[in-house]
Design goal:
- It is built from 12 helices and 15 strands.
- By secondary structure, it is α+β, with helices and mostly antiparallel strands.
- It has 3 domains: 224 residues, Jelly Rolls (Sandwich); 47 residues; 56 residues, Arc Repressor Mutant, subunit A, CATH 1.10.10.60.
- The strands form 2 sheets. Strands 1, 4, 5, 6, 8, 11, 13, 14 and 15 form a 9-stranded mixed sheet that branches.
- Helix 4 runs antiparallel to helix 5, helix 6 packs across helix 8 and helix 9 packs parallel to helix 12.
- The longest helix is centred in the C-terminal third of the chain and has 19 residues.
- It is globular and about 65 Å long.
- The two termini are 40 Å apart.
- Keywords: DNA-binding, Transcription, Transcription regulation.
- It holds the Pfam family HTH_18.
- InterPro entries: Homeodomain-like_sf (IPR009057), HTH_AraC (IPR018060), HTH_AraC-typ_CS (IPR018062), PchR_regulatory_protein (IPR053142).
- This is AraC family transcriptional regulator.
């Protein structure tokens, strides 16, 4: 049976099931930090959480299989809220957005949106993510986190699954498909069957695995070939140099550096740096640099009183107007607007 608990008690209840860090934070209700329920509790492999209060409603259900993890959630909150999640593992996540467009920020990736009734596959490694939830809007989502062993069982069964596995396992951080894919009625039917699965009956868990496998293969074979990133062959040493390049960009966002200069710094040729970076991180070097700058600027605007002119400089801009224009293109609002909302 689902327990109805207060907003304050979410932290106490979920911390007892600690494995992955999660935070809810909003201007009105502040920050509540808890843990994503993974693993087993008194109901075996299934967990239900329901929280209601003046903040709104939050419902979460999770199911842990042998080498996969199913989650489904529904939220309707009374304030613009950020749901922050962090994990210390390599996650391969097939994510379906069933209701309301969902804005997300994943560490090491450009900010993005999954439109309503669309899906994509994400590869994340020891990442922090934030979901931006708008007030009084209902969000429904469903997803499956796969372990590598599950995916490898399907390698070679279909060309799509083989190509996908190669990309997913090697993608250090990012979306696997270049564009989100519309959820078909057939996919939706399978999702609904999984969500309605009755854990109290005697139907073996193999039913879930069959349905999950069916959904995975249907999704992979529905993706147009052009949405798969082009492959590139790199040595382990070259892969490490790509990660070194990424870290340099993160730690030196205020410094201007060209692709040839960055390639020289880490010891790799220009072509492999550009193509390898796009393959492993799902974005270009220029887009990655811009995203890192904008995320730092947003954090400073929301969490500090540092003047906008100084934030512009710290974000690598010599001109405040240029910084403001880039910020507005990224987030849809000017830095002044964001700072003003925080101070209200």
């Amino acid at each position: 049976m689902m327990a109805i608990i207060s907003f304050i008690n979410i932290q106490r209840m979920l911390t007892a099931m600690a494995q992955e860090n999660v935070k809810l934070k909003s201007k009105i209700f502040g920050t509540v930090e808890y843990h994503l329920p993974m693993g087993r509790d008194i109901e075996g492999d299934v967990r239900f959480i329901r929280a209601e209060g003046q903040f709104g409603q939050f419902v979460f259900r999770s199911t842990k299989g042998s080498d996969y993890y199913i989650w489904q959630g529904s939220t309707m909150l009374e304030d613009d809220t950020t749901l922050a999640i962090s994990h210390e593992k390599k996650w391969f996540t097939l994510s379906f957005n069933l209701k309301s467009s969902l804005h997300y920020i994943i560490e090491g990736m450009p900010a993005g949106v999954i439109a309503e009734r669309c899906y994509n596959f994400f590869s994340t490694n020891k990442a922090r993510a934030e979901l931006r939830l708008r007030k009084k809007e209902t969000y429904n989502s469903f997803g499956i986190i796969f372990e590598k062993d599950f995916l490898e069982r399907w390698k070679g069964v279909f060309n799509a699954s083989s190509d996908f596995l190669t990309v997913a396992v090697n993608r250090m951080q990012g979306k696997i498909f270049s564009e989100d894919i519309v959820i078909s009625s057939e996919m939706l039917s399978i999702i609904e069957n999984i969500m309605r699965f009755d854990y109290s009956n005697d139907v073996p868990q193999i039913y879930l695995e069959v349905k999950i496998s069916e959904l995975l293969l249907l999704c992979l074979n529905s993706v147009p070939e052009q949405h798969y990133p082009a492959r590139i062959l790199l040595s382990k040493d070259e892969e490490l140099k790509l990660e070194e390049a990424r870290k340099y960009l993160v730690e030196n966002i205020h410094t201007k550096v060209s692709v040839p200069e960055l390639a020289h710094l880490v010891g790799i040729n220009d072509f492999k740096l550009k193509q390898g970076f796009k393959f492993f991180y799902g974005t270009t070097i220029a887009s990655f640099k811009l995203n890192e700058r904008m995320q730092k600027a947003m954090k400073l605007l929301l969490e500090t009183d540092v003047p906008i002119k100084q934030i512009s400089s710290l974000s690598g801009y010599n001109s405040v107007p240029n910084f403001s224009a880039a910020f507005k293109r990224t987030f849809g609002h000017s830095p002044k607007h964001v700072r003003g909302r925080r101070q209200k």
